[in-house]
Amino acid sequence: EVLLQQSGAELVRPGSSVKISCKASGYTFTDYYMHWVKQRPEQGLVWIGRINPANGNTVYAEKFKSKATLTADKSSNTAYMQLSSLTSEDTATYFCTRSGRDSYAHKNWGQGVMVTVSS
Amino acid sequence: DIVMTQGVLPNPVPSGESASITCRSSKSLVYKDGKTYLNWFLQRPGQSPQLLTYWMSTRASGVSDRFSGSGSGTYFTLKISRVRAEDAGVYYCQQVREYPLTFGSGTKLEIK
Protein backbone atom coordinates (compact mmCIF):
# COMPACT_ATOMS: atom_id res chain seq x y z
CA GLU A 1 0.00 0.00 0.00
CA VAL A 2 1.31 3.43 -0.96
CA LEU A 3 1.50 5.82 1.98
CA LEU A 4 2.68 9.41 2.22
CA GLN A 5 3.07 10.29 5.89
CA GLN A 6 3.56 13.96 6.59
CA SER A 7 5.00 15.60 9.69
CA GLY A 8 2.90 17.28 12.34
CA ALA A 9 1.29 20.69 12.56
CA GLU A 10 3.57 23.69 13.01
CA LEU A 11 3.10 27.01 14.79
CA VAL A 12 5.83 29.40 13.71
CA ARG A 13 6.75 33.05 14.13
CA PRO A 14 6.59 35.58 11.29
CA GLY A 15 9.93 35.91 9.54
CA SER A 16 11.08 32.43 10.47
CA SER A 17 11.40 29.26 8.39
CA VAL A 18 9.86 25.84 8.67
CA LYS A 19 10.74 22.48 7.13
CA ILE A 20 8.03 19.88 6.71
CA SER A 21 8.47 16.29 5.64
CA CYS A 22 6.68 13.63 3.64
CA LYS A 23 7.81 10.04 4.17
CA ALA A 24 6.93 7.70 1.34
CA SER A 25 6.40 3.96 1.57
CA GLY A 26 4.93 1.17 -0.49
CA TYR A 27 6.62 2.05 -3.79
CA THR A 28 10.00 2.87 -5.30
CA PHE A 29 10.60 6.45 -4.18
CA THR A 30 12.76 7.39 -7.16
CA ASP A 31 10.27 6.22 -9.78
CA TYR A 32 7.74 9.01 -9.16
CA TYR A 33 7.68 12.77 -8.86
CA MET A 34 6.74 14.36 -5.57
CA HIS A 35 4.66 17.52 -5.73
CA TRP A 36 3.63 20.00 -3.06
CA VAL A 37 0.28 21.78 -2.95
CA LYS A 38 -0.89 24.67 -0.76
CA GLN A 39 -4.43 25.20 0.51
CA ARG A 40 -5.30 28.24 2.57
CA PRO A 41 -8.29 27.93 4.93
CA GLU A 42 -11.54 27.64 2.99
CA GLN A 43 -9.73 28.22 -0.29
CA GLY A 44 -8.63 26.21 -3.32
CA LEU A 45 -5.56 24.23 -4.24
CA VAL A 46 -2.35 25.88 -5.44
CA TRP A 47 0.56 23.95 -6.92
CA ILE A 48 3.91 24.91 -5.42
CA GLY A 49 6.36 22.72 -7.29
CA ARG A 50 7.71 19.24 -7.75
CA ILE A 51 10.92 17.32 -7.27
CA ASN A 52 12.27 14.29 -9.07
CA PRO A 53 13.77 12.25 -6.19
CA ALA A 54 15.92 10.28 -8.62
CA ASN A 55 18.14 13.26 -9.43
CA GLY A 56 16.92 16.17 -7.29
CA ASN A 57 15.63 18.13 -10.29
CA THR A 58 13.00 20.68 -9.24
CA VAL A 59 10.36 22.82 -10.93
CA TYR A 60 8.60 25.64 -9.06
CA ALA A 61 5.65 27.87 -9.70
CA GLU A 62 7.01 31.40 -10.17
CA LYS A 63 5.41 32.79 -7.02
CA PHE A 64 7.07 30.13 -4.86
CA LYS A 65 10.59 30.31 -6.26
CA SER A 66 11.86 32.43 -3.38
CA LYS A 67 9.49 30.96 -0.81
CA ALA A 68 9.82 27.18 -1.06
CA THR A 69 12.79 24.83 -1.35
CA LEU A 70 12.13 21.19 -2.24
CA THR A 71 14.56 18.42 -1.41
CA ALA A 72 14.46 14.63 -1.23
CA ASP A 73 16.49 12.07 0.71
CA LYS A 74 16.69 8.78 -1.15
CA SER A 75 18.19 6.97 1.82
CA SER A 76 15.06 7.56 3.92
CA ASN A 77 12.46 7.88 1.13
CA THR A 78 11.51 11.29 2.46
CA ALA A 79 10.68 14.50 0.65
CA TYR A 80 11.00 17.87 2.32
CA MET A 81 9.73 21.36 1.75
CA GLN A 82 11.28 24.34 3.48
CA LEU A 83 9.31 27.59 3.59
CA SER A 84 11.20 30.77 4.39
CA SER A 85 10.44 34.34 5.49
CA LEU A 86 7.06 33.27 6.71
CA THR A 87 4.11 35.68 6.83
CA SER A 88 0.43 35.28 7.59
CA GLU A 89 -0.08 34.58 3.88
CA ASP A 90 1.77 31.30 4.39
CA THR A 91 -0.76 30.05 6.95
CA ALA A 92 -2.18 27.04 5.14
CA THR A 93 -2.32 23.29 4.86
CA TYR A 94 0.44 21.85 2.73
CA PHE A 95 0.03 18.52 0.96
CA CYS A 96 2.59 16.28 -0.66
CA THR A 97 1.35 14.17 -3.54
CA ARG A 98 3.13 11.76 -5.85
CA SER A 99 2.55 11.47 -9.56
CA GLY A 100 3.73 9.34 -12.40
CA ARG A 101 6.36 10.96 -14.59
CA ASP A 102 4.29 10.34 -17.71
CA SER A 103 0.71 10.64 -16.52
CA TYR A 104 1.06 13.36 -13.85
CA ALA A 105 -1.83 11.58 -12.17
CA HIS A 106 -1.72 12.51 -8.48
CA LYS A 107 -2.92 9.15 -7.23
CA ASN A 108 -1.68 9.48 -3.68
CA TRP A 109 -1.73 12.33 -1.21
CA GLY A 110 -0.36 12.91 2.26
CA GLN A 111 -2.73 13.86 5.04
CA GLY A 112 -1.59 17.48 4.95
CA VAL A 113 0.38 19.64 7.37
CA MET A 114 -1.20 22.72 8.89
CA VAL A 115 1.31 25.54 9.18
CA THR A 116 0.16 28.52 11.24
CA VAL A 117 2.20 31.70 11.15
CA SER A 118 1.51 33.81 14.21
CA SER A 119 3.35 35.86 16.78
CA ASP B 1 0.14 30.22 -17.06
CA ILE B 2 -2.87 28.15 -18.14
CA VAL B 3 -6.02 29.43 -16.45
CA MET B 4 -8.62 26.86 -15.42
CA THR B 5 -12.21 28.10 -15.04
CA GLN B 6 -14.83 25.93 -13.36
CA GLY B 7 -18.59 26.23 -13.49
CA VAL B 8 -21.09 26.39 -10.65
CA LEU B 9 -23.62 23.70 -9.78
CA PRO B 10 -27.28 24.43 -9.00
CA ASN B 11 -27.07 23.04 -5.48
CA PRO B 12 -28.34 20.98 -3.82
CA VAL B 13 -28.59 18.07 -6.23
CA PRO B 14 -31.22 15.45 -5.32
CA SER B 15 -29.83 12.06 -4.45
CA GLY B 16 -30.09 9.70 -7.42
CA GLU B 17 -29.94 12.49 -10.00
CA SER B 18 -26.96 13.25 -12.26
CA ALA B 19 -24.61 16.21 -11.95
CA SER B 20 -22.20 17.63 -14.51
CA ILE B 21 -19.27 19.82 -13.53
CA THR B 22 -17.59 21.90 -16.19
CA CYS B 23 -14.04 23.15 -16.55
CA ARG B 24 -12.47 25.29 -19.23
CA SER B 25 -8.77 25.85 -19.94
CA SER B 26 -7.20 28.93 -21.52
CA LYS B 27 -5.05 26.71 -23.74
CA SER B 28 -5.44 23.30 -25.30
CA LEU B 29 -4.43 20.48 -22.94
CA VAL B 30 -3.76 18.03 -25.76
CA TYR B 31 -0.11 17.04 -25.88
CA LYS B 32 1.82 15.79 -28.90
CA ASP B 33 1.20 12.19 -27.77
CA GLY B 34 -2.51 12.77 -28.40
CA LYS B 35 -3.47 12.57 -24.73
CA THR B 36 -5.33 15.29 -22.90
CA TYR B 37 -3.61 16.21 -19.63
CA LEU B 38 -6.52 17.01 -17.37
CA ASN B 39 -7.14 15.62 -13.89
CA TRP B 40 -10.29 15.69 -11.76
CA PHE B 41 -10.26 15.51 -7.96
CA LEU B 42 -12.82 15.36 -5.18
CA GLN B 43 -12.00 16.88 -1.82
CA ARG B 44 -14.40 15.94 0.94
CA PRO B 45 -14.52 18.21 4.01
CA GLY B 46 -11.46 17.77 6.18
CA GLN B 47 -9.81 15.32 3.79
CA SER B 48 -7.02 15.31 1.25
CA PRO B 49 -8.01 15.50 -2.42
CA GLN B 50 -8.79 12.20 -4.13
CA LEU B 51 -7.94 11.59 -7.78
CA LEU B 52 -11.00 10.66 -9.84
CA THR B 53 -9.79 10.75 -13.43
CA TYR B 54 -6.62 11.55 -15.35
CA TRP B 55 -5.80 11.93 -19.04
CA MET B 56 -9.26 13.53 -19.09
CA SER B 57 -11.25 10.30 -19.06
CA THR B 58 -9.22 7.51 -17.43
CA ARG B 59 -10.74 6.61 -14.08
CA ALA B 60 -8.31 6.15 -11.23
CA SER B 61 -8.12 2.77 -9.55
CA GLY B 62 -11.04 2.13 -7.21
CA VAL B 63 -13.14 5.03 -8.47
CA SER B 64 -16.80 4.25 -9.15
CA ASP B 65 -17.92 4.04 -12.77
CA ARG B 66 -20.56 6.62 -11.83
CA PHE B 67 -17.78 9.16 -12.48
CA SER B 68 -16.91 9.85 -16.09
CA GLY B 69 -14.70 12.51 -17.62
CA SER B 70 -15.03 13.82 -21.15
CA GLY B 71 -14.28 16.87 -23.26
CA SER B 72 -12.29 18.47 -26.02
CA GLY B 73 -8.93 20.26 -25.88
CA THR B 74 -10.19 23.20 -23.83
CA TYR B 75 -13.63 22.29 -22.50
CA PHE B 76 -14.18 19.45 -20.04
CA THR B 77 -16.98 17.81 -18.12
CA LEU B 78 -17.05 15.50 -15.15
CA LYS B 79 -20.36 13.68 -15.00
CA ILE B 80 -21.54 12.04 -11.82
CA SER B 81 -24.42 9.60 -12.30
CA ARG B 82 -26.88 8.72 -9.56
CA VAL B 83 -25.31 11.03 -6.99
CA ARG B 84 -25.01 9.83 -3.41
CA ALA B 85 -24.38 11.58 -0.12
CA GLU B 86 -20.73 10.44 -0.23
CA ASP B 87 -20.19 12.45 -3.43
CA ALA B 88 -20.58 15.74 -1.57
CA GLY B 89 -17.54 17.99 -1.48
CA VAL B 90 -15.52 20.26 -3.71
CA TYR B 91 -14.43 19.11 -7.17
CA TYR B 92 -11.28 20.49 -8.77
CA CYS B 93 -9.96 20.20 -12.28
CA GLN B 94 -6.21 20.48 -12.83
CA GLN B 95 -4.19 20.86 -15.98
CA VAL B 96 -0.93 18.94 -16.12
CA ARG B 97 -0.15 19.80 -19.74
CA GLU B 98 2.62 22.23 -18.84
CA TYR B 99 4.31 23.89 -15.91
CA PRO B 100 3.22 25.49 -13.73
CA LEU B 101 0.47 22.99 -13.05
CA THR B 102 -2.75 24.85 -12.27
CA PHE B 103 -6.06 24.04 -10.62
CA GLY B 104 -9.53 25.39 -11.15
CA SER B 105 -11.10 27.26 -8.25
CA GLY B 106 -13.34 24.34 -7.34
CA THR B 107 -17.02 23.44 -7.70
CA LYS B 108 -19.02 22.59 -4.63
CA LEU B 109 -21.51 19.74 -4.78
CA GLU B 110 -24.21 19.46 -2.16
CA ILE B 111 -26.62 16.55 -2.04
CA LYS B 112 -30.27 16.76 -1.04
Q: Helix- and strand-based class of chain A?
A: mainly beta
Largest beta-sheet characterization of chain A: 7 strands, mixed
**Annotation field: number of helices of chain A:** 0
What is the total tally of β strands of chain B?
Answer: 10
Tally of helical segments of chain B: 0
Q: Which two chains form the greatest contact, residue counts included?
A: A-B, 24 and 25 residues
* Basic shape of chain A: globular
Q: How would you spell out the order of helices and strands of chain A?
A: EEEEEEEEEEE
**How much strand of chain A?**
over 45%
Radius of gyration of chain A: 14 Å
**Oligomeric state of this protein:** heterodimer
The overall pLDDT average of chain B reads 97
Q: In percent terms, what proportion of residues of chain B is strand?
A: 35-45%
How helical, in percent, are the residues of chain A?
Answer: under 10%
Tell me the series of helices and strands of chain B, N- to C-terminal.
EEEEEEEEEE
Biggest sheet character of chain B: 6 strands, antiparallel
Helix content of chain B: under 10%
Sum this structure up briefly.
The complex is a heterodimer of chains A (119) and B (112). With 119 residues, chain A is mainly β.
Which properties best describe this structure?
heterodimer, A: mainly beta, 7-stranded mixed β-sheet, 4-stranded antiparallel β-sheet, about 50% strand, globular, B: about 110 residues, mainly beta
Task: Walk me through the structure.
The complex is a heterodimer of chains A (119) and B (112). By secondary structure, chain A is mainly beta. Chain A has strands at 3-6, 10-12, 18-25, 33-39, 45-52, 57-60, 68-73, 78-83, 92-99, 108-109, 113-117. By secondary structure, chain B is mostly beta strands. Chain B contains no helices and ten strands. In chain B, strands 3, 4, 5, 8, 9 and 10 form a six-stranded antiparallel beta sheet that branches. Chain B has a four-stranded antiparallel beta sheet with strand order 1-2-7-6, with no helix packed on it. The chains are: A mainly beta (119), B mainly beta (112). The A-B interface holds A 35, 37, 44-47, 49-50, 59-62, 95, 97, 99, 103-107, 109-112 and B 37, 39, 41, 43, 48-51, 54-55, 58, 60-61, 90, 92, 94, 96, 99-106.
